[in-house]
């Protein structure tokens, strides 16, 4: 093969490599820019409490699981206090978990919602399957075989963003 043919072939290979490199770089740049715009800040859903509720559901279950074995019915007030103590670190974390997005969650127990929930969902009369229910603060407990069982917690969540303020009350049940 002549030197001219080898040189031409080398130039073609070099040109092909440059074209491929340019195409890959352009594709990578386009991929990085998909869905972004310099004037639009990517935000979480402005004040939706769903993420907070999901985290609280797991936390209520974790806090409620050991209660029946540890607290008899006559110790139900101490059981409710133990639930609140167990949930407090998680609630504190959730309150400030979205500050970098200018979102603040004010989370508190809703005593009246808990009382209403206990009245509406705990049957009375001689044919009921379990013992009485009681709302202690925001915690709803029920007597079952002499033990305290946590049915759930009524929680008020007020979410404030730079644009809106939303308030909702949720009843987080122990699904365990």
Share of helix among residues? 40-55%
What composes the largest sheet? 5 strands, antiparallel
State which percent range the strand residues make up: 15-25%
- The ordered H/E elements are HHHHEHEEEE
Q: Give the overall average pLDDT.
A: 83
Radius of gyration: 29 Å
Distance between the termini: 80 Å
Structural class designation: alpha+beta
Walk me through what this model shows.
With 176 residues, the protein is α+β, with helices and mostly antiparallel strands. The chain is 47% helix and 22% strand. The protein is built from 5 helices and 5 strands, in the order H-H-H-H-E-H-E-E-E-E. Strands 1, 2, 3, 4 and 5 form a 5-stranded antiparallel beta sheet that branches. A hairpin with a 2-residue loop joins strand 2 and strand 3. The longest helix is centred in the N-terminal third of the chain and has 31 residues, at 3-33. The model is unreliable at 36-44 (pLDDT under 50).
Task: Please tag this protein with its features.
alpha+beta, five-stranded antiparallel sheet
